[in-house]
Amino acid sequence: MDGTTIVEALLLGLVEGLTEFIPVSSTGHLLLLGHFLGFENPGKSFEVLIQLGAILAILTVYSGKLLKLVRDLPRDPRTQRFVGGILLAFLPAVVIGVLAHDFIKTVLFETPMVVCIALILGGLVLLAVDRMPLTPRYADAMDLPLPVCFAIGIIQCLAMIPGVSRSGATIVGGLMLGADKRAAAEFSFFLAMPTMAGAFAYDLYKTAAVMTAESTMMVAIGFVAAFAAGVVVVRGLLAFVSRHGFAPFAWWRLAVGAIGLAALLTWG
């Protein structure tokens, strides 16, 4: 592995950690940046496997709350409903992810134009939702009813199109279904844990045979960078969203999508 490859893996890991939990599509950013850098990895596994760093970032920041959930789970009905809601929301991604895995990796991940269009459309949706006079019914992620959790899980499956954004889909879904901005973002954090862990495990199972020592080292570098950047983002995101809403992310998506589209049309 040469120095350039190490720098690229480090840069892509930082981008993963910085964008995983905000509604701008980390996978879309990684695919576009990797395309223009000429970054290659077996089976497009790097973009999925380095998400483990982001998962550990959530576990680190939310360790206290997670331990409380584990302690309260055997005896507290509210905690039981919340954990059940997370698992229920996770189920649609399991089914569609397994069925569509090969199409996603060999077609959608290999089509940067799809990423740019999804970034732009998603930015327009975020702007529209941010300006809607929504009346929240749920101020705490733990109070979301099970049917709402399942509906958010179905909406999350849109993020299998790179550029849509998993966090963006789940947050917008939560807002439209009655959660306030903080509750929607926090539910998205918790749903990310089984979703990203499942994607990591299944992708590792599918691509382990083509992984080399060099590609494994690239994943390790990206993982460390994603973890460090993810901790910073998770610690500050809820407060930022509560103050500023989602418009800044929408404008970022529009800018990145438009620049990527222009670059693809100009240079391919």
Automatic annotation (TrEMBL):
Enzyme class: hydrolase
Superkingdom: Bacteria
PANTHER family assigned: UNDECAPRENYL-DIPHOSPHATASE (PTHR30622)
One GO process term, biological-process aspect: peptidoglycan biosynthetic process
Keywords: Antibiotic resistance, Cell membrane, Cell shape, Cell wall biogenesis/degradation, Hydrolase, Membrane, Peptidoglycan synthesis, Transmembrane, Transmembrane helix
Family assignment from sequence similarity: Belongs to the UppP family.
Entry EC no(s): 3.6.1.27
Reactions catalysed according to its record: di-trans,octa-cis-undecaprenyl diphosphate + H2O = di-trans,octa-cis-undecaprenyl phosphate + phosphate + H(+)
Protein name: Undecaprenyl-diphosphatase
InterPro entries assigned: UppP
Membrane topology according to the record: Multi-pass membrane protein
Predominant location: membrane
Transmembrane residue ranges: 48-70, 82-101, 107-129, 141-164, 184-205, 217-238, 250-267
Claim: Transmembrane is one of the keywords in the record: yes
GO terms for MF: undecaprenyl-diphosphatase activity
GO CC entries: plasma membrane
Function of the molecule: Catalyzes the dephosphorylation of undecaprenyl diphosphate (UPP). Confers resistance to bacitracin.
Note: Bacitracin is thought to be involved in the inhibition of peptidoglycan synthesis by sequestering undecaprenyl diphosphate, thereby reducing the pool of lipid carrier available.
